[in-house]
């Protein structure tokens, strides 16, 4: 099984290794990227003088707006060599087109292979894929590529459809599922309502995407605890994005997503675009390594995280990324308290009688933030509002405004036909 040797090396060796890869990347984009050639020229940057990761501070950032406005200027090969097209999810803005070469698909396959291995994967397993393969989605296809390379089996069921998910588990007996963790609660609920003995099913672990399972100290958050209390399977968190073409996956120790230094350079920057001190939160900024079609240099992801550098008990010495605290553009100030949508979701996902919800933030007449949470539940008695607000105050110190709404109406808003991900947060500021 493939264990990249570089992940088990001391940080000093990892840094030297990455700096050599950085030189190769800079040379490549200086020759092949219309966008970066212009950036270097406009800013009078001699890319050959950027020799260390610290030297990157002299390079301007690349933003999502750059990708949108100059999309094809990021292409580094002739269009005839681009063989796979996807788009970003468009969580914070319009989706951006990404195109991959054959070599990029090999890189993506490698990334998923070593990520699944990190999460205890091996040949002979069977993974049930509960995410979409279509709708221009990178991740679903990437999972299939990595699982195949690992010598494991995959069942492409897609998202939703609890009845079909359980029928598939009964028929084929996979030992692992890949899904958004809150969906695990939905299939548990379906099993309980339909007398399915899910605790004795073939499923032994879940590789989870899109939502946090852990607190800052790596203990399970409310969502993670609720899943484990109901169904004692192994839970592995992963973090990734289309722009990175790289994932950070937990190992069995559950202490953060492991960095793959052969694939990506990571920085954390503050609001003034300075590198944060070790142990502090900052906006994740990435430089891709080994990407042929659309490499990115100092791309600001918008995600807030921090890094952990102490060696992991699994033996890897790579940096580990914390659970994502939130998106920089989604920070909310409510009654003097700083919040991110994920912390609100964490409370709501742990309440049994909440069927679904939408969190809406807006600005009031004095320019501060208001939060209105639309909640769908079977028995929407007014006394539940007090319970909900008490739970918010206990967890977040503040409580948003709450309004009960029809479950089907919320579901219609959450799952528009064109979207790949459910909408749970609406920003009207």
Summarize the structure.
The protein contains eleven helices and 21 strands. The protein has 429 residues and is α/β, with parallel strands linked by helices.
Word description of this protein:
The chain has 429 residues and is an alpha/beta fold. The chain has two domains: 1-327, Rossmann fold; 331-427, GMP Synthetase, Chain A, domain 3. It is built from eleven helices and 21 strands. The chain has helices spanning 11-32, 34-42, 64-69, 102-118, 138-150, 162-172, 181-193, 222-230, 341-348, 383-396, 407-414, and strands at residues 84-87, 97-100, 126-129, 153-156, 176-179, 205-208, 234-241, 246-249, 257-258, 264-269, 282-288, 299-305, 307-308, 320-321, 326-327, 332-334, 337-339, 356-363, 369-376, 401-404, 425-427. A six-stranded mixed β-sheet has the order 4-3-5-6-7-8, sandwiched between helices. The chain starts with 10 loop residues before the first helix and ends with a strand.
Number of structural units classed as domains: 2
What is the beta-strand fraction?
Answer: 15-25%
Q: Over all CA atoms, what is the radius of gyration?
A: 22 Å
CATH A-level architecture of the largest domain: 3-Layer(aba) Sandwich
Q: Biggest sheet, open or closed, and with what strands and sense? A: 6 strands, mixed
Helix % is 25-40%
Average pLDDT metric: 91
The strands making up the biggest β-sheet line up spatially as 4-3-5-6-7-8
Give me the CATH fold name of the largest domain: Rossmann fold
CATH superfamily of the largest domain: ANL, N-terminal domain
The low-confidence runs, each spanning 5 or more residues with pLDDT under 50, are: none
- Record field, number of beta strands: 21
Instruction: Specify the number of helices.
Output: 11
CATH domain class of the largest domain:
Alpha Beta
**Helix and strand composition category:** alpha/beta
Cα end-to-end separation: 49 Å
What is the global morphology? globular
